[in-house]
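To illustrate the input format used throughout this study, we show a single complete record. The first block contains the structure-token representation of the backbone; no residue identities are included at this stage. The design step must infer an amino acid for every position from geometry alone.
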């Protein structure tokens, strides 16, 4: 997700403001230009929110758990090499 890497430290607030501004202004501009109606914009926002939540709570956690298991295995191998001098 963009929010995971966009903005860090003191710039994190600015990053979130940019993301929220885009999430508000883009649908308004789509309705203003006549490309979509209000119900299409609301449906798109709801689908986007659902997919973000599913991504965050399922897919991203699975990836993080897999990554840390892989890192822990490599750390244990390095510790064994250092301790036993292999």
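Output of the design step:
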């Amino acid at each position: 997700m963009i929010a995971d890497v966009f903005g860090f430290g003191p710039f994190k607030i600015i990053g979130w403001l940019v993301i929220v501004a885009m999430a508000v202004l883009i649908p308004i501009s789509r309705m203003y230009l006549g490309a979509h109606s209000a119900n299409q914009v609301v449906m798109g926002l709801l689908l986007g929110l659902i997919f973000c939540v599913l991504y965050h709570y399922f897919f991203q956690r699975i990836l993080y758990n897999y990554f840390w298991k892989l890192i822990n295995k490599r750390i244990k191998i390095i510790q064994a090499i250092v301790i036993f001098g292999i």
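Structural context for interpreting the output: The chain is about 85% helix and 0% strand. The first helix runs from residue 2 to 5.
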